[in-house]
Fold each of these.
Amino acid sequence: MAQWVQELHFPQLDIPIIIDKVEPILSNSNIPANNDSLYLSNLDDMVGVRVFTPTVYFYQSKGLKSRLESVVQILKDSLRRVLVPYYPFTGRLRETKNGKLEVFFGPDQGALLVEAHSDVALADLGDLSVPNPAWIKLIYRFPNEEEYKVVDMPLVIAQGDQIQLWWTQPCSCVEILVKALDVKPLDYELRLTFSVNARAKLKNPRLNDGFYGNALCVACTTSTVSKLIDGCLAETAHLVHEARLGVSEDYLRSTIDYIDLHRPKRLEFGGKLTVTQWTRFSIYESADFGWGKPIYAGPIDLTPTPQVCVFLPEGGETEASGAMVLCICLPECACHRFRELLLSHGFK
């Protein structure tokens, strides 16, 4: 990319999609009986994790040595095999009487495989290096489906189609963000939240190898507006570092107990910035199904969550370099000021 800092505006795209087939896929074996259910940890009851993140993978057709029918069959056969050890993904989330989530296996269980086609070419989809809300048309939606609903929905929906954000180099831009938003008053307390992988924190007992349940815990640090604006970068970095180190086994168990007692139902966005990192997911390396790595792999739309900052691995030719794309959602009124402040700090 020519510049480190870009303001991106996405035009409306005409993406006609024709759904050819919607098929529930079950595992080759280990199929749960009807009306069975699986207990979920209280960590899955955090209101912040009850979200649906539409994700796409784009591939060059030159990597395909067979027709779409063969590609779909490969995906179908692979999904059946993978669902043997990961059979919970054939179920549906539902709430129990006290609001707790569980995985339920009813008569409509199965991961959904959607076969579709379109005359749109990859070149028609715009910049394939950053998320684009216009791609949401590529995602299969049920009739009358509530937006981003997760309860009573399939845990896996795989679709095979033939066929205002910013990015900048990674840096600590919390102070710049606060200045651009012009937050008042100066003694207002701000929060930064981010997820921490707590697997290594659990010692008694340890998690079994291969555990794929939720083991993320939310860390939080606070500071006043004046301290962020007038303080130095080292002080801000120290706050974040201390918050990360503060996620211990006791912290995790305290979080679980708090959720069990209070069952929080609402997210608070006032004065909060949420950071989420996708760079450790190996989404490019793990998505080669025989026709090469995707040229883009990641989320479609970040705008439903205000004040979110997402680190994404950069694909394409720069993938091996470890470069990252940092996407930040801002109110339109703050975008120009944010860009000015970044440029004044040496980002071109």
Amino acid sequence: MLRIRTRALRMRVLDVLHRYSMWVLAMEDAAVPMREVSENALFAKLEIF
């Protein structure tokens, strides 16, 4: 029971790490435009408040 749970947990952690690494690679690919977009979104949120 515990072994199955740890295996499922390990697979979940690996899945999250994989998604995070893919997301980081995508962010590095689009670093400059995404930085501008995120700054614009941040200012938009600040203007909402």
Amino acid sequence: VSNLAGALALVTCKEPLRVSMGNHLRSLLSQVTSEQNLIEPVVNLCSTENLELGCILIEKAATEKAMRDIDEALEPMITARVKSREQNREPYFDTSIFNTQNRYPNALPDPLRPKPNPNGLEPHQLLVYEAFQRIPRQPVIPANRSNLPPGQQGVGLQNQAAAPAAAGQMPVSPSGSGALSQHAAFEKWRIIVSNLDRIVMEVAANKGRKPDQDISVLLLEIRSVGAAIDSSQRDEAVIGFAQRIFKRLYELSTNDKFRLEVQYAILEAFVELSKDLR
């Protein structure tokens, strides 16, 4: 839910936010000067520099609201299940979902339609819900991978990813058509950071329980994406995205220690990618 809400908010807010920021800036600056040739460059510069920060704030607000709304919607059902377990100590069945006026689950195909079962959902039914929690990883594909035999391409990719991690070094991506563009790297980093935010919220909600996804794996993905950027654009891309993370630190409460530690770990991953940040 958090990933979907954040992604939808990010896609829909960018252009309206840019226009709104420009209009507000023009309104404020027009009170100081009437020379449009001075106002427009300032408006464009300020809008561009602050657009990404605004998008991050909107994405964060949308994600938190979605999680809060879902929790509120599920609270009565969770409470009913807890009371049923305490009183009856038998599996709880919510028969109201089978109301003929409801579209779901009646519209579901029979294999996926829930039925009263003391053991809960069947494995093939549970797989549908578990699939939403698995975010497909997009491994960095080297430019010369196509030269490998078809049966060895996957093996070569695994060996290439495992060797640098074991040696504590970052893989070096070749310059050329196989390298990531700055825009593609930003999008991959945005998804990784969004996943890290989700893990932080899950840990907070579960009172410190170990998260389902390993944070160190996501931090390694940050380095892998950075190493795959064309060497001529890598420093610029790394510094640009690291600035976003640095700005986020100002938004966090000093009491939220775990979230701060994760943000520091993200910054450290970017520091390792660029000498200009050291």
Amino acid sequence: QAALGWYDACLSLVPLSNTAVRRDALEARSRCLSHVGRTDEALQTAHTLGTIATNMDHDCVVHTLVAAIQRQAGHLQGELSALTRLTSLRPLDAWHWRRLAAIYQELSRCARSSVQCNGEQSHSDSDGHSNGGSSCGSGSSRNCDTHRPSDNSDPSTACGFQSCIHSDSHDASTCALPNVGDEECLLIIAEWYVIIRYRLLLQLSSASQSAFILDRNLEAQANITSDLEKSGVGETTLMCMAEVLGEDLVTLGTTGDESQGTDEARSHDDTPNSIGQFEKRWFGRLYGVAHG
């Protein structure tokens, strides 16, 4: 709280023309607001910071800041929106994909918990009494629900996977994953994709690394391999995904796409469509591979 007061005082003294110092002070003020639980004000300050961004590095700072604020507040969907924009700006940064993998894993868990909760509730209703031991009323289940897109949003944009399925004439009911609902199926495929891409990027960067940085890289790769083995992902599916991802990385390397950034990614508006656009761009072809 004291630091927040200092940064407010700093901003009142810095002239509007000194954008470099104002950017630093605004970022610090936003982080202070987030730390004391004033999330809305923190996001508004981050938006103000975005209005004086003049290059892609500045945009990356804003998206990283928003992701941190949303994570601090426990808003999974908001963090995902910020990270998809950040990853679109820097698609060859392995650590952005690592965080995306963690988010999709959490969303998959939320979807699974929701299905279990609905099943328990239906069983309870059919028996005519409440199941006192049910976890449906737990805080984690309610939190999962609040991170999903609004029921009023357009499903073709709020869920990029679904729009890909419809446009590519895939049938979600034919998901190759047994005993898994449509929503969880899509999230699991996204999780696999992001994890495999994260490993490929680590492998590409390891050739130029040494010492403790290389050790950290190799340790991360070993953990990914272990996680994939535990998940039960079929070897054929992994090979198909890796093949598609390899083509994509070659394309990125030859076109210089990472340095361009899209208008959607450079925008600082937090909308569900940003997630849909990201998933449609990066996961559309992979969903077909998983069905194959």
